[in-house]
Design brief:
By secondary structure, the protein is mostly beta strands. It has three domains: 5-30 and 40-151, Immunoglobulins (Immunoglobulin-like, Sandwich); 154-236, Immunoglobulin-like (Sandwich), CATH 2.60.40; 239-315, Immunoglobulin-like (Sandwich), CATH 2.60.40.10. It has one helix and 23 strands. The strands form six sheets. Strands 1, 9, 10, 13 and 16 form a five-stranded mixed β-sheet that branches. Strands 4-3-6-7 form a four-stranded antiparallel β-sheet, covered by helices on one side. A hairpin with a 2-residue loop joins strand 11 (172-180) and strand 12. It is elongated, with a radius of gyration of 27 Å. The two termini are 52 Å apart. 30% of the residues are buried.
Amino acid sequence: MRPSAEAALRTALLGAALLASGLAAAQPMPPPAFRGAPAGATPEPSLPALPTLPAVPPAATPAVNGTGSETLSLSASFAGDTRPIRSGLVWRIYESPAPGSEPKLLHKLTTPTPTATLPLGTYLVHVAYGLASTTKRITLTEGAVTERLSIAAGGLRIAGAIGDVPIPPNRLSVAIFQPLPNDNEGRLIAANIKSGDLVRLPEGSYHVVSTYGESNAIMRADLKVDRGRITDATLNHRAATLTLKLVAHEAGEAFAGTAFSVLTPGGDVIREAIGAFPTVTLAEGDYVLIARHGGKVYTREFKVESGLDRDVEVLVTPG
């Protein structure tokens, strides 16, 4: 879905390398304008601390700007916080490029506080926390160097429910959009997220679309991500799961190989399925069910009430 992500990263790093040598850090992408978070999105305390994993053993690296080498120790924290982030980080160390050339990747590290031994010289250090990241230019001279990078990021975790009943994670699919001017939905930045998955994002405002099942049971919300915090939100769907049947009489045996179509009262097709008793999840409302079997067509109208899972039977009429 993001085939140009690596190229975009290389371009950003090249731009950082061309700045003046006194540059301290490239600033994270500014957050989009907030839309306002709805009720039900409850921020939790700061992200939980986990035990520090052992650092990756230093790898041999060709000399960059002279002789000798020194140790570079890295860590990251949320903007405005001094505590190091203990999980979810991916580090990349690049050789500082000459003007007009691309940076060369020297190390990729996934421990939260890695250490690398590098030849004396200048490097670009990039750290990613999910979809949030920052880059800093670091120069190694005589003496070990310890650097901490600051990331303006937080987490977003979505769940779904029907009334007080949680929706199983495998029945819910979430997409996250970044709002854009004059765009009601925005730019898609993450898709196919399951209920309960933690998505790490730059701080800011996001548009969330939650789909229950495979049809029209969809809920939307605007949610805010704060730096250093997890925003937990439960989206309450108003829908039900129905079993479709074509029968000769009420509670009778279902005819196999029946083709079903679920339509709105206006004639828009919402869902199609084939089988003896397929299941569909629909938003509450009024529908028309069409069943085709043996060259004949049978119809009935029905109503979906939120949380009321049931069978919807179409009776075979004589003639």
